[in-house]
Amino acid sequence: MEDLLAHIARSLVDNADAVQVKRSDDNDTVIIELTVAPDDLGKVIGKQGRTARAMRSLLAALAAKENKRSRLEIVE
């Protein structure tokens, strides 16, 4: 999960070295924290949040395979 989100984020941003992905598990929920450079925050979120919503959908599908819920937090 983390690798896929990191790959997607790195392809979207200008400063790929600043992309960090952290995973934490809380009971039946997988929490992924995505950190990018401040200048690239808009590129990860996308127009009206469409890119972030798409990444959340992918994360939900991957988490469903493990019978878990997911949450993507984009850290500023």
What does this molecule look like?
Helices cover 42% and strands 28% of the residues. The protein has three helices and three strands; from the N terminus they run αββααβ. Strands 1-2-3 form a three-stranded mixed beta sheet. Strand 1 and strand 2 form a beta hairpin. The chain is globular and about 35 Å long. The mean pLDDT is 94.
- What is the mean predicted local confidence, pLDDT? 94
Largest sheet: 3 strands, mixed
Q: For the terminal residues, how far apart are their CA atoms?
A: 21 Å
**Model regions low in confidence, pLDDT < 50 over at least 5 residues:** none
Order of helices and strands: HEEHHE
Please report which band the strand proportion falls in: under 5%, 5-15%, 15-25%, 25-35%, 35-45% or over 45%: 25-35%
The total strand number stands at 3
How many helix segments? 3
Overall geometry: globular
Proportion of residues in helical segments: 40-55%
Compose a concise summary of this entry:
With 76 residues, the chain is α+β, with helices and mostly antiparallel strands. It is built from three helices and three strands, in the order H-E-E-H-H-E. The chain has a three-stranded mixed beta sheet with strand order 1-2-3.
